[in-house]
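User: quick one - fold this with beta-D-glucopyranose bound?
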Amino acid sequence: MRNTTVLGIDVGGSGIKGALVDVMSGEMLTERIRLETPQPAMPDSMAEVVAEIVREFDWEGKVLGCGFPAIVKGGVARSAANIHHSWIGVNIEALLEEVTGCRVHALNDADAAGIAAMQFGAGRDILGTVILITIGSGLGSALFTDGFLVRNTELGHIFLNGMIAEHYASDATRKQLELDWEEWGGRFNQFLNHVERVFSPDLILLGGGGSKKYEFYQEYLHLDTKVIPAKLLNQAGIIGAAFFGYHQEHFPEKGLGVHPGLQDFE
Ligand code: BGC
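Assistant: Sure. Structure tokens for the protein plus beta-D-glucopyranose:
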């Protein structure tokens, strides 16, 4: 029997969170630990916070999956919208392996949340085109087609009214500009309508901190596509990162599909 306990880490622009996860059930086995993201959000200081979280946990195998708020290709950060630009070109996996002594597998944070939603949450067993949008410091996205993830989509960076969409409609923008729910809901609705027009999704899932406030802006969303807040809410980033860590550690040659289910790990 393989050990299915993996540490999931969700690195965000404002907080870094971690918990041990059983990747078969998708359940967190421990309380979540959250530490502030150091500002400026630079590689060495952030890696030290991840190491601090890792020291709180003891688990066999020392495999760690890390969701990271950037384009991540081959373990390397390729963008830096809500973190310091010195991250660009840094091998996240190598850096975190060095400071934690763990085996590390890194992916985009919204992709991680999407994996959890598709494998264990509201997207489970849904075929067709499913898009998860995470609402937080930025707008993250994860695109699935028949359960397969198209990695590193950056729908929060499309242009909307001459602006980068996440500057127009993220949760951070709502707070900064003190928009009321109707104003912000209208902006977010424009964003989702744009996404709908381009992708014709079968389902849109909402994640990240902003999905917890769905009841306040639900009435301002007018789309043909069904929209639901992902039920794992902002734990999804941790759970999906752990799942990815396990997948990459044991089955890197398999596509990152979640349907009909990566439970068929044999
Ligand atoms: C980044 C994405 C990330 C999202 C949510 C955006 O600014 O470009 O890579 O997924 O924020 O953290």
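One thing worth noting: Residues 181-199 form the longest helix (19 residues).
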